[in-house]
């Protein structure tokens, strides 16, 4: 196990707590392995009827993967970089297919890898402090950890909008997009956890009933219909339903409203190559099973740090912090279609794929 994942069983519930608040609970390989080990152990333990996962520190559930490690490992040619993604995606899959109720308390920052360990949950609870995003295009990556799959299953073209822009959304948006199940204020969330810990549960359904009873009392406090995504839905669908990223950018660039101007400005700062790769990913994912989509993501990630913008994007955001990435290519009109499609070529034969064993 690792010092950054605390495990405890109380009253029939297994509690997983990410305890790396100084890094906003960003996931390391050791943390991925600790989470996997605990889930495997509890799946086989009749004394554990449900699992609750949360982040310590009050600021973040989980801000993603450890991008500083990604940068260092990529430059060093460290094979543990590839292994990280193999094991992380296997963990994401395990959560989606977990045999017992898995509940994610998505309080604070929930981004990237944090979405990967929460979107497969039976209940996904958000609070007034939730800041949710798949911001990978901002660092030269794409929305992985099953992101293509779950973004593709949001209403209309919200998946394309969230995946390409990487914009942060909040509780009402998450509920509207189907990326959360219920709203519970952060103070009430603490009370819910305390009541769960004081209980003794004989079944996972009892745990879910306790959570649903709590969240039902707060339903009126967060209206998905009043969310930014709901207000901009027509514009989002009309824009992000376009055939290409170039067309999407042209639409928002030609419009004069504030939302279009902000969207155009955001897209112009993202990696042109990874914008095109991400659009292709989400649209392919709409007709894919989760297992196939995760295998596709591993194929894509194999290329990101070798031929893509991943190293440069992380350098600009987190290492040198100059926020001036030198994307290759620098312009959308320079992105070649064959370079985009190359990300979807697998370096492995199907039977030798590291995620070949994932089953529905």
TrEMBL record:
One of its GO terms (molecular function) is isomerase activity. It is an enzyme of class 3 (hydrolase). It holds the Pfam family ECH_2. It catalyses: 3-hydroxy-2-methylpropanoyl-CoA + H2O = 3-hydroxy-2-methylpropanoate + CoA + H(+). Keywords: Hydrolase, Isomerase. Residues 14-344 form the Enoyl-CoA hydratase/isomerase domain. NCBIfam families: PRK05617.1. PANTHER family: 3-HYDROXYISOBUTYRYL-COA HYDROLASE, MITOCHONDRIAL, 3-HYDROXYISOBUTYRYL-COA HYDROLASE-RELATED. This is 3-hydroxyisobutyryl-CoA hydrolase. It comes from Cupriavidus cauae. The lineage of its organism: Bacteria, Pseudomonadati, Pseudomonadota, Betaproteobacteria, Burkholderiales.
